[in-house]
Amino acid sequence: MLSATLYRENVSSVTDKAQLDRSQLLVSLAVLKVNWDERGRTYVDNFIPFVGDWLRVTSPQSCSPEEVAEGVRATFGIVLPIPVARTLLSRVVSTLRWAASIGST
Questions:
Q1: HEC readout, 53-101
Q2: From 76's CA, which of 23, 58, 66, 95 has a CA 20 to 30 Å away?
Q3: For the chain, which residues make up each domain, given as ranges?
């Protein structure tokens, strides 16, 4: 049920449906479903892989929550409100800092 609801919300909120790659959106929703069902993540944490992947692919020197939200929408077809993008960006940066500190020891 969660997947169908997310699909309807995302498809209806994308202004230019011609640019939306439906297969990519379905893959995105499948990742969300697996994270939700199998990994016991919080709802917001389900979206961290999308932000992390967008950051990995684009490698920006810096970015704003607005840029993250637009990048995730353009890449995955998932619309993130700006406050959610801000939270996700903060969590990804914290995770990267933690991983760097582990790697440097």
A1: HHHHHHCCCCCCHHHHHHHHHHHHCCCCCHHHHHHHHHHHHHHHHHHHH
A2: 95
A3: 2-103
Which pTM was predicted? 0.61
What contacts 11, CB < 8 A, 6 or more positions away? 17, 20, 25, 77
Q: Which two tokens stand for residue 41?
A: 């993540």
* Distance, CA of 56 to CA of 42 (rounded, Å): 22
Long-range contacts of 16-21 (CB under 8 A, 24+ apart): 19/74, 20/77, 21/77
Q: Which H or E element spans position 2? A: helix 2-13
pLDDT tens-digit readout, 2-56: 444 544 555 555 445 545 567 777 777 787 787 777 766 677 888 888 898 999 8
